[in-house]
Each structure stands twice: as structure tokens, then as C-alpha cells.
User: Which sequence fits this backbone?
């Protein structure tokens, strides 16, 4: 039986058929940090003064919009020097091959996901997502816990937070802007679709659950002034952008030091609710169909 938490290909079909519906004009979040993703998947650009850093490259079908967004901000995609990936699922590396071809950038991936690409590429979810023509890439650089990636005026500290995938990373970086130097941070993956019972049973990745909880603990005490999301729902990117447009002189809605812990508490509660639900079910029941 398939858990309701698993990937729902029907819900994503629209991204393949009509990606243009999900376009958002790119915008500055704070200082030299910009949003270049779409309404579903985040992609972030940092202008380091000595080249660009891009974090995640969205779906294969939305990569043309990503390239256009970088140009619209006044940057040349050819100047990307580093492409970081929060984790190795297809919706975060869809434009990587194209952008590497355009720029010659170095690609970075968490160690666990580099192993996954080599040994268990099915866990990149390309086939499960209906993108069977699309392949994982070979990363140029491997990210390990505590690594610091430095380019121009920017240093990005990497913290491994496996669970959603074996190589999921979180990162933290200082950004200079009109309110001084603030810390932007992102948890790189907390989706339950790869940690729910039916997925774990099928793919045998039962270690993911304890890994995930340890990862949440590891980053809980980080100071984060600007919480970023690799899916826009995590930090309400779209709503905040609308607020900024409506209130150009107003407070920056991305600057909120309480949001980080609030989000981590939320994902932990969701995770625990899922585990409780599974424990309460009779063996073999489907969560979606089970009637009580
Ligand atoms: Zn994912």
C-alpha cells in the first residue's frame, strides 16, 4: 500500500505540461541574495563579486525560466561559478546539466547523495517522477559536514542533515544588506515522502528516520535571521514577495529570527504525527483508504 505521504505524480504533472504557469519574476531577498526559482521549487542566487553561486536548479521542465530569471536580475548565467545542491532529488538538479554547460560551474553535492547517484540512482526519483529520460549528474565536488565554500565576499557553511535523502545538507551564510550582516540559512530537505512507511519498506532506507531527527537537533540552535526554503511553502516565499511588492518601503518580511525554530518544530511535529499514524494502523492498512 502507498502512504499518503509518498510522491504524488499526478500533483506534479502540471509542472511538466505547463511550467510557465509557475513562473515568478525573480527578486532580491536581501543584499546580494536573490530568488530565481518558481512557485514550487526554490533556487537562490548569490552575487559574490567574483562570480555567482546558485543553490538548486529546480525541475528539468522549469530550467529555461531559471536561466531567464538570472538574466532579468542583470546577471549572466555564464558567470555562475558554483552550483550547490541541497539534496539529490530531480526537482533540485533539473537545470544543473544545462547551467553547467552554459557556465562551466563546479557542481557540489552532499556526500551521501553522490554515493546514492552512483549506487542507487533510482533514489534520485527521476523515474518515480515520470522523468525517466533524465539522469543524475556526476558532481565535481563533494560536500561534507563542516565544509565552508568560499567565493568572493561569500562563505557558505555546510551542515549535513540526512534523512530526506542520505546526502541532504543544510547551509548558513552571512549576507550584507541595508540592515547589516544577517545570517541566511536553509534546511535542505524535510519532506516525509521518502521517510514514510511504504517508501522505507520499498527502498530499505530505514536509517533515514533516526538520521532525520539527529539532523534537526544539530541545526536547531543555529541563529538564522533569514530562513530560506528549497520549496516555496517552507518560508512562504510567494506571499512575502507579494508583500514586498505592495510595501516597497515596508519591513523586509524575510527577516524574522523566529521563523527557523518555528519551521523545525513544525517539521518535527509532522514527522512524529506520521509515525504515530503508522503505529496506530493495522499492518497492511493503507493510510489513505483505512476506515475506522
Ligand atoms: Zn527531495
Assistant:
Amino acid at each position: 500500500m502507498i502512504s499518503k505521504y509518498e510522491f504524488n505524480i499526478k500533483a506534479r504533472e502540471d509542472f511538466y505540461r505547463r511550467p510557465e504557469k509557475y513562473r515568478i519574476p525573480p527578486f532580491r531577498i536581501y543584499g546580494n541574495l536573490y530568488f530565481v526559482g518558481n512557485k514550487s521549487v526554490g533556487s537562490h542566487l548569490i552575487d559574490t563579486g567574483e562570480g555567482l553561486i546558485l543553490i538548486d536548479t529546480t525541475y528539468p521542465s522549469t530550467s529555461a525560466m531559471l536561466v531567464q530569471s538570472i538574466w532579468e536580475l542583470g546577471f549572466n548565467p555564464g558567470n555562475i561559478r558554483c552550483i550547490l545542491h541541497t539534496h539529490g532529488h530531480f526537482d533540485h538538479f533539473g537545470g544543473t546539466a544545462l547551467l553547467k554547460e552554459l557556465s562551466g560551474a563546479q557542481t557540489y553535492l552532499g556526500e551521501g547523495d553522490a554515493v546514492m547517484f552512483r549506487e542507487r540512482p533510482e533514489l534520485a526519483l527521476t523515474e518515480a517522477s515520470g522523468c525517466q529520460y533524465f539522469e543524475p549528474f556526476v558532481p565535481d565536488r563533494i560536500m561534507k559536514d563542516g565544509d565552508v565554500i568560499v567565493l568572493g565576499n561569500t562563505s557558505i557553511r555546510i551542515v549535513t542533515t540526512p534523512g530526506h535523502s542520505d546526502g541532504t545538507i543544510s547551509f548558513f551564510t552571512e549576507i550584507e544588506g541595508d540592515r547589516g550582516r544577517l545570517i541566511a540559512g536553509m534546511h535542505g530537505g524535510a519532506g516525509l515522502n521518502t521517510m514514510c512507511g511504504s517508501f522505507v519498506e520499498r527502498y530499505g532506507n530505514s536509517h533515514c528516520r533516526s538520521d532525520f531527527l539527529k539532523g534537526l537537533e544539530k541545526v536547531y540552535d543555529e541563529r538564522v535571521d533569514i530562513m530560506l526554503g528549497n520549496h516555496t511553502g517552507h518560508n512562504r516565499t510567494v506571499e512575502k514577495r507579494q508583500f514586498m511588492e505592495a510595501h516597497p518601503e515596508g519591513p523586509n518580511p524575510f527577516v524574522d529570527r523566529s521563523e527557523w525554530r518555528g519551521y523545525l518544530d513544525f517539521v518535527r511535529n509532522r514527522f512524529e504525527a506520521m509515525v504515530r499514524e503508522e503505529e496506530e494502523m493495522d499492518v497492511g492498512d493503507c493510510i489513505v483508504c483505512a476506515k475506522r
